[in-house]
Amino acid sequence: MKTNTALYILLFISFLTYTQEKINPSKVLFEPGIISTKHVEYGATFTHDGIEVYFARSMQEWAKGDMKSSIYHSFFDGEKWSAPQIVSFSGTYDDSDPHITADGKTIYFISKRPSSENTISSDIWIVKRKSNDSWTEPERMPNPINSEQNEYSPCTDMKGNLYFASNRPGGYGQGDLYVVPNEHGGAKVPINLGNILNSETGEWNLGVSPNGNTLIFEASQRKQNVSPYGDLYISFKKNNSWTIPQNIAELNTSGSDLYPFLADDLKLLYFTSSDSLKSTDTNIYFTDFTPILKKYQKRALNH
After folding, report:
1. Topology of 2-299 in CATH?
2. pLDDT tens track of the chain, all 303 residues?
3. Any idea what DSSP says for residue 210?
4. d(Cα 299, Cα 71) in Å, to the nearest integer?
5. Domain locations in the chain as residue ranges
6. Cis omega (within 30 of 0) on the bond before 142?
7. What DSSP state is assigned to residue 146?
8. Residue 157's CB: how many other CB atoms inside 10 A?
9. 267 Cα distance to chain centroid
10. How far is the C-alpha of 5 from the C-alpha of 20, rounded, in Å?
11. Residues 6+ apart with CB under 8 A from 148
């Protein structure tokens, strides 16, 4: 795919700049003018083979009140990415935060559309891919996976565990990270990921590695933050416990840095950034994840 060439460039740059104490990963704008434009684009998710991307786009300004988004799709034909089109299940309501599973058969997303539960909040919905590559009608996931409050940023690992963020009651702060274990015959009840990851401020969206042992998430208003509006943090699961989250200082800006997605067997990290406090849009970027992974694995500490 096209990003492989960019990956080789990034690997070479990282080789030249990497030291044990400091790294300088290059941040590359993903498909400028096609995917990343003057509008707001965020929350990219890719199929495992890297030839399809789904993301959210809004024609309104970033962080300016109630922003309405739709989910778009683009595919790589071996030479270039297609012009993005709104997917069949989006375009009417406020839809965002798409996540396609590793087998490419299911998309989780967030929507503020009406449901039979008579609640209109940011909830997790799913669609299934049909044999003709079209999508089924969206279905709202049941409570207590959803709640009367807001859910954000659903994602899955290879075992089918579902991760998401929510500002439901009973958490540690403004928003917390949760997991719904994919246990055969078990109750589908969200489990708070605990106060090593979650804090008294806010944790809002996340990305997880296929094996479920590396977690990157956005946190707001932490003392370590470059920006109060959201920085990317990384944590690792060791002995069934998460390490103390570390601020990925090399990538964070004075604006919002969020919506991580790990791709290409952890060689690439895609994420969204507004780049500065004054920015009224966001774009999708990618970077070589290898030096970042090595650096923060080395520094990871248990609570």
Report:
1. Neuraminidase (2.120.10)
2. 555 555 555 555 555 444 445 778 889 999 999 999 999 999 999 999 999 999 999 999 987 778 899 999 999 999 999 999 999 999 999 999 999 999 999 999 999 999 887 677 899 999 999 999 999 999 999 999 999 999 999 999 999 999 999 999 999 999 999 999 998 777 789 999 999 999 999 999 999 999 999 999 999 999 999 988 899 999 999 998 999 999 999 999 999 999 999 999 999 999 999 999 888 899 999 999 999 999 999 999 998
3. T
4. 37
5. 2-299
6. no
7. S
8. 20
9. 16
10. 26
11. 119, 121, 168
- Residue whose token pair is 């991760």: 163
Sheet of 257-263, strands arranged across: 28-29, 283-288, 268-273, 257-263
**Helix orientation angle between 2-17 and 290-299, rounded to the nearest 10 degrees:** 50
Written as one letter, the residue type at 21 is E
Alpha-carbon gap, residue 82 to 99, rounded angstroms: 19
Tokens in use for 40? 């707001």
